[in-house]
Amino acid sequence: MKREQRSGWAPEPPAEQDITEASISVSGDDGLDTPIGELVRRVVTEGRAYAETEFARQRLRAHIVGTAGRDAALLVLAAIFLLFGAMTALVVACVWILAPHLGVAGALAVTIAGALLCIIALLAAARARMRRALHIALGKEGGHE
Q1: Which domain holds residue 52?
Q2: For residue 58, how many C-alpha atoms fall within 13 Å in the half-sphere facing its CB?
Q3: Are the beta carbons of 73 and 81 closer than 8 angstroms?
Q4: What 3 state SS string does the chain have?
Q5: Rounded to 10 degrees, what is the CA torsion of 119, 121, 122, 126?
Q6: Mean pLDDT over each residue of the chain, to the nearest integer
Q7: Quick check: is 13 in a domain?
Q8: CA of 124: how far to CAs of 16, 54, 58, 89, 110, in Å?
Q9: Which partner from 40, 100, 125, 131 sits 20 to 30 angstroms from 92, CA to CA?
Q10: Integer distance in angstroms from the first to the last C-alpha of the chain?
Q11: CA 12 to CA 102: how far, in whole Å?
């Protein structure tokens, strides 16, 4: 006898229920033996069980996505923290390397000017991307302000 593997993601059929033509009994000319009220009650009960299972499934999916999002945000935060440390070390190293050639004030000025130029270039690229995204989102075709 094969044993089915149950996933837990959907309501499982009752173990002993076998729906075949032989299991449906028909009486004379008044239809099925089971009254319509009983059939409706059974459908409502099974529908409620299915809805509860589906709700639990969706709640589990939301929990998994939420946990993954939180973990990803923490990892990104740690990466940003380390990036700021590395950038600080780079700026200090630039001042330290340039100080013998330009003096401390000159090395500091060159390093700050270089950092500001990088910041301006990054902000200009971000502004261009945002403008392009807004033009696409708002339906403006290729027009410039």
Answers
A1: 30-138
A2: 6
A3: no
A4: CCCCCCCCCCCCCCCCCCCCHHHCCEECCCEECCCHHHHHHHHHHHHHHHHHHHHHHHHHHHHHHHHHHHHHHHHHHHHHHHHHHHHHHHHHHHHHHHHHHHHHHHHHHHHHHHHHHHHHHHHHHHHHHHHHHHHHHHCCCCCCC
A5: 130
A6: 83
A7: no
A8: 69, 48, 42, 25, 21
A9: 125
A10: 73
A11: 78
Q: Token pair of 115, please? A: 């950092």
What is the total count of domains within the chain? Answer: 1
What does residue 144 show for φ and ψ, rounded to 5 degrees?
-110, 150
- 122: in domain: yes
Site of tokens 């301006």: 120
Residue 65 in tokens: 């996505």
